[in-house]
Amino acid sequence: MDFLTVHGIHHTYFTKNSATTALSDVSLTVGEGEFVSFLGPSGCGKTTLLSIIAGLLKPAIGTVALEDKKVETTRQSIGYMLQQDYLFPWKTIEENILLGLKISHQLEPVKIKYALNLLEKMGLKGVELQYPKQLSGGMRQRVALVRTLATEPKLLMLDEPFSALDYQTKLKLEDLVSNTLKSFGKTAILVTHDIGEAIAMSDRIFLFSSSPGKLHKVFTVPKELREETPFNARSHEVYSTIFNSIWKELDSLEHANNC
To answer: How much helix, strand and coil, in percent to the nearest 5, is found in the chain?
Structure first.
């Protein structure tokens, strides 16, 4: 049984004067503990598909199942991490990381201890009583990750979570997130425009074409890279080979769209 099954997804956005098909006949599966990336040109429906998988958007046609159950019934099993950290500025860091537990009525001593231990593992011990404005952008994203993991989601959705950070912080967070998710055996989907990020962090990469969004090709990241940290994977001799392959495919898609 596949952990996540996406079957025959078709979605169209309607306005008063037009209809735009964002996704057409998208089917894919993700295994438990697997880290996959959605990559493709702008407008290929990556974020739309992520919203459908998360149960935030209902597709016009098609189904999504998590552990053989309709995703609409398993929303509490899904965590979402976005480009912006969306921490509440008037709440302390501790209050922010416990927010998901509070909303889901899981604010129990053992859960609180788990969340605070996560904060320490992320190198943020001692910031519990501080406010978001007192932390750097990278620290805030680590807090956002703790808040997401505190509810112990089975599936983690990452929608360009590093794109607003400087390059050095981005590379450090890639390693931290990758190592954390591997240690917890989490299943994750990353939406990104960055080919290098997709290769460095993923087991497989789903490349989408646009107008409408379709699954164009699936790349399996070589084992040699999957065994490295994202930072070290970028300097591995195999890295450039798969990077060039994906680049050529992506370039051909963008060229076709411009013709």
So the answer is: 40, 25, 35
pTM of the predicted model, to two decimals?
A: 0.90
CB of 159 closer than 8 Å to CB of 38: no
Of the options 2.60.40.10, 2.40.30.10, 3.40.50.150, 3.40.50.300, the CATH number for the domain spanning 4-74+156-258: 3.40.50.300
> Which parts of 98-189 fold into alpha helices (H)?
99-103, 109-121, 137-150, 167-184
Q: Which of these, 220, 230, 177, 171, lies nearest to 200 by C-alpha position? A: 230
What residues does each domain of the chain span? 4-74+156-258, 83-153
Residue-wise pLDDT for 79-99, tens only, equals 888 878 889 999 999 999 999
User: pLDDT tens digits, residue range 48-64?
Assistant: 999 999 888 999 899 99
Structure tokens at 84: 């912006």
Helix, coil or strand: residue 113:
helix
